């Protein structure tokens, strides 16, 4: 694996990026946004940063602010911008979040550092050829949707790159199941963890087996959430309490740059 370079100004850069990100509408919590900034700057691989699901641009701004500072290329933002769930207007399918998205990246000064693809991820994947170093999946949260996004773009994730899923520790059936079954259960991945509701793992096809035990320990805790959210229905009563209990037992603290280096370098047999 390539050396992990931590820029000396990373904390200041992420802090400044957060000042631009925090006023953008969206559902990305502050610890999650800061972690994305760390991924953008410190993932030890070469390739594109790909975002599946942009909504109004909150995560896009964070990723692009950090990537632009370090000259890491454009953030490729894939979203049809017509989600009736996020827009809250299922009776008006023509309504779009695209104009607000464009306003968000323009106001943050990152328009030239973002390459929007106003399309479904499945359509974008059909002609995809670029290597990917950070794959940020925040699109369709059904199991079928999250699985399709993962399967479609994983072949382009370069060794050392990172895949991350949003809302894996929130009550959605897709992200947590795909992460546990297809990531934590695979020796193609090494270091893995959670930050707030983000699930992440580094692609290590040559030596991921060295991290098998640490992934298995994480999977044992995280897998208990899967049957509770499988229906996709809102959790209530005892089921909701059980979900909160099992989520509490999953480690999901913020990661500092020094901890990031340690996590990626150290397998725990």
What is the molecular shape? Answer: globular
Q: Give me the number of helical elements.
A: 12
Order of helices and strands: HHEHEHHEHEHEHEEHHHH
CATH class: Alpha Beta
CATH architecture heading: 3-Layer(aba) Sandwich
What is the strand tally?
A: 7
CATH superfamily membership: Vaccinia Virus protein VP39
Oligomer: single chain
Number of domains: 1
Average pLDDT, rounded to a whole number, is 94
Low-confidence parts: none
Task: Give the amount of beta strand, in percent.
Answer: 15-25%
Secondary-structure content class:
alpha/beta
Strand order of the largest sheet: 3-2-1-4-5-7-6
> What is the end-to-end distance?
18 Å
Helicity range of the residues?
40-55%
CATH domain fold name: Rossmann fold
Q: What's the gyration radius in Å?
A: 18 Å
Taking the sheet with the most strands, its summary is:
7 strands, mixed
Describe the structure.
It is a single chain. The chain has helices spanning 10-21, 30-42, 58-69, 84-87, 98-107, 121-126, 143-153, 173-184, 212-222, 226-229, 237-248, 257-265, and strands spanning 48-52, 75-78, 114-117, 132-137, 157-165, 189-195, 198-203. The protein is α/β, with parallel strands linked by helices. It has one domain (10-265): Vaccinia Virus protein VP39 (Rossmann fold), CATH 3.40.50. Strands 3-2-1-4-5-7-6 form a 7-stranded mixed beta sheet, sandwiched between helices. β4 (132-137), α7 and β5 form a beta-alpha-beta unit. α7 crosses α8 (173-184) and α8 packs antiparallel against α9 (212-222). The mean pLDDT is 94.
